């Protein structure tokens, strides 16, 4: 079952074995070109997006689900997204943050504690899942978590975060400060609980 | 010991740079995505291309709109996962009919408008028969993220309107289908993060996105005290509270807080008679 991390090269190779040659692309025209272009984009962007989704959602299953949902939608309007956004990757990341926040609100209210469904398979029980900070992040409400991720993972400024999430800078500020407050409390609690200095 | 701001900053940077954050993509993950793209386009083509033909009645409604799914905590297994589950056949099985993408021909500069796939809909199998209704040519119309929620709706999405009328606004996106039995949740088109719940009886409830505020100025992130001040008749149940809507006797606001004294994490406007 254990699936080793697939390097980008492997993804690419798997698809290069496809049956259609370039001449088919000409015959079938623009649409195929667009699909191929998007396919290439997906192969390149996927590792980064999955990692980002993992940071956003806190678990592998939701990460994969989120990436797929957003990519499918973006892919179905790829030409327009490319033309209108200028930076599709930034657009996708922003959409992921928003989709995560709103989806979580709809479907995860009942189980705030991250439950990793069986379907996720062989997540090695390595220490990452047990990192106190990772666990503390997981317990944050989604918007607070998103603010932390956008700031520390994406390196966005407060203004950029506000724009990405469609909220005011004041909200970003207060969410960030709440998030940092609870992270600190949880970490302090953790280390005191373990009698560490 | 107590964490200083700097230490916490450093810890967060360290965590987010950790290699273990990476997730292995399934080797055919890109195909799963492309298959999904194809499904969306096919469905869109079905709705816009052959309007009027009765063949349109066969509409794939089931489960695809992941974000519109509601009522199930078990999300379908994902196609991208770091996973080798045999149960994740949903995306994989449909890759059969998806043409493998080419190595990148440099056609992306082609200035045509986005082409819609021409394949006719698979008028077969696991489909459910529904009237395409008046929504067959709906274009997705994003709703501004700052639209007010209340007293009667969110922009042109109004409580109590028929599902067809709601879909026709375009704010539920080009792919929205009328609800089946029970309540169905629809994401509002665009990045606002808002959503609505509908039954065959019409639009029942609206959940605010991050930027939507009530006319009284309450939105996600508002302090609980602000809510208490804005709605004097607030029924406070701790982490949730509800209030009648000023100016709309048939509406009800429900607020959720991130703790009994926390800030607002969710604002919902619903018909007070709604079961959703």
TrEMBL record, chain A:
One of its GO terms (biological process) is DNA-templated transcription initiation. InterPro entries: RNA_pol_sigma-70-like, RNA_pol_sigma-70_dom, RNA_pol_sigma-E_actinobac, RNA_pol_sigma70_r2, RNA_pol_sigma70_r4_t2, RNA_pol_sigma_r2, RNA_pol_sigma_r3/r4-like, Tscrpt_reg_LuxR_C. One of its GO terms (molecular function) is DNA binding. CDD domains: Sigma70_r4. Pfam families: Sigma70_r2, Sigma70_r4_2. Keywords: DNA-binding, Sigma factor, Transcription, Transcription regulation. It comes from the Bacteria. Residues 137-195 form the HTH luxR-type domain. NCBIfam families: SigE-fam_strep (TIGR02983), sigma70-ECF (TIGR02937). This is RNA polymerase sigma-70 factor (Sigma-E family). Belongs to the sigma-70 factor family. ECF subfamily.
UniProtKB/TrEMBL annotation, chain B:
The chain crosses the membrane at residues 45-66. Residues 100-123 have a biased composition (Pro residues). Keywords: Membrane, Transmembrane, Transmembrane helix. Residues 84-98 have a biased composition (Low complexity). Residues 69-140 are annotated as: Disordered. It comes from the Bacteria. This is Uncharacterized protein.
